[in-house]
Amino acid sequence: MRKLEIYTSKTCEWCTETKNYLIKNNISFIDKEIDDNDEEWKTIVTITGMETTPTLVYGGRILIPGRDYNDIEEIPFALNVYKNIYQESSFLTFEKLKSFEYNISEALQHIISELEELKTISNEHKSTS
Predict the structure, then answer these.
(1) Given this model, what pLDDT does residue 88 score?
(2) What is the set of domains in the chain, with CATH numbers?
(3) Considering Cα of 102, then 103, then 109, then 112, what sign does the dihedral take?
(4) Contact 30, 6 (CB under 8 A)
(5) pTM over cut 0.70
(6) What is the pLDDT of residues 4-38, one digit of tens each?
């Protein structure tokens, strides 16, 4: 039977909250501290291109907060969404595409923020001229 694995960091409050949520909702898991599972963690980071904890792995699916779910209450839904999405042969491509989409979204949000700041500065400059 497949078991949910959660890769955590000792200093990560989000990791503690996620583990408490899983326990509260009777979702069994194996806690894998990244410092104690260095090789496995490096493989996940290589596949996803992201070093975010907590990272969940279930049946070959890798779920990363912010990329695959935004709130711990979305975890059960996220686990089901990715259940049959890809075959083994497209696993790496799918993981890279999820990370790519997340990174593009973050970059666009940053650009929009910078443009808004420039607009504010420009308007302030115009009003003082």
Answers:
(1) 53
(2) 4-128 (3.40.30.10)
(3) negative
(4) yes
(5) no
(6) 999 999 999 999 999 999 999 888 999 999 999 99
